[in-house]
Design goal:
- The complex is a heterodimer of chains A (163) and B (115).
- Chain A is mainly alpha-helical and 163 residues long.
- Chain A is built from 8 helices and no strands.
- Chain A has one domain.
- The longest helix of chain A has 29 residues.
- The mean pLDDT of chain A is 94.
- Chain B has 115 residues and is an alpha+beta fold.
- Chain B has one domain: OB fold (Dihydrolipoamide Acetyltransferase, E2P) (Beta Barrel), CATH 2.40.50.
- Classes of the chains: A mainly alpha (163), B alpha+beta (115).
């Protein structure tokens, strides 16, 4: 069934690690639940950041709010990456050919690129701003892109089971 | 940035049909099939138990329930072990050749629901 999957993903699926994920009664379901819980935490942290950038909670100092939410977002993203890798490895040869999964990977790359551009181009300037001041246009654009792309990531993720 | 993103999305969408692969959406519920025969291989693993069955015409790959659900319904690994005679009712895949998703299986006179 794996005829067109790249060898590295077939090898991952056949690895002892992936076999253990598949054969354990609790590992795969736990990764499934863990992925959703991480997703909820990630969405929450991200919502705080993106909404603050767009001008919500304007009485707060943006630098402080964003720094705290950023830590939570990074931690939740790590949870997503670990549980996601577990789920992926169990069926790597199949999933890598799934169009929804492929689009999801592209979307994640786009979202991380958007975050990186913000980090390099706007974060320092935003951190110095006092409460009640509108944020730079580039920062607001990052927030809009972030919301749109991460929603696409979530939709793609849920769609993997249907393609 | 925005253009690059649109371009990537368009590329991915254009590539999608050629890469279509299986999922719960791609089973033909309008044409259910019943397969009977000996089990040739059996993988009692997450996310779905998979067995191959030598039917009268060809070897079918059967996608069954997740292992934990199989066990809670009494369809433990020994029930779908290699060599057992199995009858499966289910829906053929519209994507994967000779693969079907079983709605229920019968082994040794006992029927187990997969949903």
């Amino acid at each position: 069934m794996e005829h067109s999957a790249p060898a590295i993903f077939v090898a991952l699926e056949q690895s002892g690690f992936a076999v253990a994920v598949r054969q354990s009664r609790w590992l795969y379901p736990s990764a499934n639940v863990g992925h959703i819980l991480s997703l909820v935490a990630f969405a929450g942290a991200l919502a705080v950041m993106d909404l603050r950038l767009l001008g919500a909670f304007s009485a707060t100092a943006p630098g402080r709010v964003l720094a705290r939410a950023r830590l939570a977002a990074i931690a939740a993203f790590c949870g997503l990456a670990v549980t996601g890798f577990l789920l992926f490895s169990a069926e790597a040869g199949h999933v890598v050919r799934n169009p929804a999964f492929r689009l999801k990977v592209i979307m994640i790359a786009a979202a991380l690129l958007n975050a990186l551009i913000y980090e390099i181009g706007a974060r320092r300037a935003v951190a110095k701003l006092p409460p009640g001041v509108p944020l730079p246009r580039t920062a607001r654009a990052s927030a809009v892109l972030s919301i749109v792309i991460w929603i696409a990531v979530a939709a793609c993720g849920r769609s993997i089971a249907y393609f | 940035m925005r253009t690059r993103f649109t371009l990537l999305a368009a590329l991915a969408l254009a590539a999608a049909p050629a890469l279509a692969h299986h999922g719960w959406g791609s089973y033909d519920a309008a044409h259910p099939v019943t397969v009977t025969g000996p089990i040739q291989t059996s993988k009692f693993e997450n996310p779905h138990v998979i067995v191959t069955v030598r039917g009268s015409d060809k070897v079918w790959t059967l996608t069954l329930a997740p292992p934990s659900r199989m066990e809670s319904r009494g369809a433990v690994a020994a029930v779908v072990a290699v060599g057992n005679e199995i009858t499966a009712y289910g829906y053929p895949s519209t994507v994967e050749k000779d693969e079907m998703r079983a709605e229920r299986i019968t082994v040794d006179g006992k029927t187990y629901e997969m949903r």
